[in-house]
Amino acid sequence: MAFGWIDGQAEARRRAGLVRTLRPRPADSPLLDLASNDYLGLAHHPEIAEGAARAARTWGGGATGSRLVTGTTELHTELERELADFCGAEAALVFSSGYAANLAAVTALGPHGSLVVSDAGNHASLIDGCRLARGTTQVVGHADPEAVRKALGTHEGAAIVVSDTVFSVDGDAAPLAALAAVCREHGAGLVVDDAHGLGVLGDGGRGAPHAAGLAGAGDVVVTATLSKSLGSQGGVVLGPARVIDHLVNAARTFIFDTGLAPAAVGAALAALRLLRREPERAARARQVAAELHARLTAAGLEAVRPDAAVVSVRAPSPEQAVRWAADCRTAGLAVGCFRPPSVPDGISRLRLTARADLSGAEIERAVRVIGETRP
Fold first, then answer.
1. How far is it, in rounded angstroms, from Cα 237 to Cα 22?
2. 20 to 30 A from 205, CA-CA: which of 43, 290, 307, 351?
3. H or E element that contains 138
4. Could you give the CA distance from residue 241 to residue 91 in angstroms, rounded to a whole number?
5. What is the DSSP letter of 31?
6. Cross-strand bridge partners of residue 223
7. How many CB atoms lie within 10 A of CB 110?
8. pLDDT in tens, 183-220
9. 235-239 and 91-95 beta bridge pairing
10. Are 311 and 289 in contact (CB under 8 A)?
11. Which of 357, 139, 127, 92 is nearest to 231 (CA)?
């Protein structure tokens, strides 16, 4: 029977407690949201919604084609200019998703004969980029510059080091300055995914590379998503102009993909401009994360100290993590639930995301619900 093997895999997932299901949410969900990546609370902000609507009215519902054909509007280039200026990069290139941006950067900058050194805790999109790159990939220990140094020492020729800036599971930050120093010792490029840093870290939310003094560096390429702090959709690669020109000509997820929808471009542009006016939102997101961590640990829960806006709480098992998250939802709180294979260390977690617009009462409520429903 065609696809008969799927049934066996489905049964194995069920036995392991790893079945995933879609749960459509209404537009006016009554749940207190600590599950989304809307770090600055902008996804429903009236200015961002109006930016999306205005772009759709002007440019239509879709980009109509790939960026190299009809999919680049004046709005796309406006967003790219403003993103580059905000983050301190020479140039920027917008993609249809952060996933596509990561695939583009790693595959286009890891050609045949090169070495790609990848952190063991990297996001799936970076891992898939490494798998698709024609270079040789070497996975090294998590957040370990010395392991990176040893890996680069085994190779002569082109090389890149690939890492998240803030890791999505525990919210810990990569040692970017140390990684950049190691790369420079060996003439390697550094490619970092700032999905969880943009809008949260750095001066006014300019990102982790900006905070580490790497903004605009000729040997550093930054990817990011527009779907987290900017409350929209899409991805971006920022870096030297010659790298961006190379991606236009060599990155398959740019060349062969339809351009980002104008509404998403308009929303991201509106969010970026709002963040410029209200830079305190970045600091507030970090403050909320620190307060969540302090209250959770005071309640006797095992929570990882956040470096940005992600707070993870360890669960005893995958099954108990699922039950814990479901009990939180029943009590009116939406939280993330990370289980294998999404977690590289096999430890299941509740994953909480701090939002700049959370009140003190909402933080207190979230901590109370998590504590009362703990396994």
1. 30
2. 351
3. strand 136-140
4. 5
5. S
6. 193, 237
7. 27
8. 999 999 999 999 999 999 999 999 999 999 999 999 99
9. antiparallel
10. yes
11. 357
Residue 366 clears pLDDT 90, i.e. is over it: yes
H or E element that contains 14: helix 5-16
Residues paired with 173 in a beta bridge: 166
The conformation of residue 15, written as its DSSP 8-state character, comes to H
Question: What amino acid is encoded at 202 in this protein?
Answer: G
Specify whether the backbone of 101 is left (phi greater than 0), alpha (psi in -120 to 50) or beta: alpha
20 has pLDDT over 90: no
Counting Cα atoms < 13 Å in the Cβ hemisphere of 258 gives 7
Tens digits of residue pLDDT in 305-348: 999 999 999 999 988 999 999 999 999 999 999 888 777 777 89
238 forms beta bridges with: 92, 222
Tell me how far apart the alpha carbons of residues 354 and 308 are, in angstroms, rounded to a whole number.
Answer: 9
Q: Give Cβ neighbours of residue 196 (< 8 Å, ≥ 6 apart).
A: 37, 164, 165, 166, 167, 168, 171, 228, 308, 309, 310
- Report the DSSP pairing between strands 115-119 and 136-140: parallel
Q: Name which of 291, 300, 268 is nearest 359 in CA terms.
A: 291
Residue 113: strand, helix, or coil: coil
Q: Exposed, middle or buried by CB within 10 Å (0-12, 13-18, 19+), for 37?
A: buried
Backbone φ and ψ of 213, nearest 5°: 75, 20
Which residues lie across from 145 on neighbouring strands? none
Q: Are 244 and 108 in contact (CB under 8 A)?
A: no
In the structure encoding, which two tokens stand for residue 74, read together? 């004046």
CA distances from 289 to 37, 42, 167, 183, 354 (A): 13, 17, 15, 31, 5
Pull the structure tokens for residue 364: 């207190």
Contact 169, 124 (CB under 8 A): no
At residue 22, what is the residue type?
A: L
Q: Round to whole Å and give the CA distance between 369 and 296.
A: 11
Pairing of strands 189-193, 159-164: parallel
Which amino acid type is present at position 152? L
Q: Could you tell me the strand order of the sheet in which 349-353 lies?
A: 32-34, 333-338, 349-353, 310-314
Residue type, 269: L
AA letter at 21: T
Amino acid at 144: D
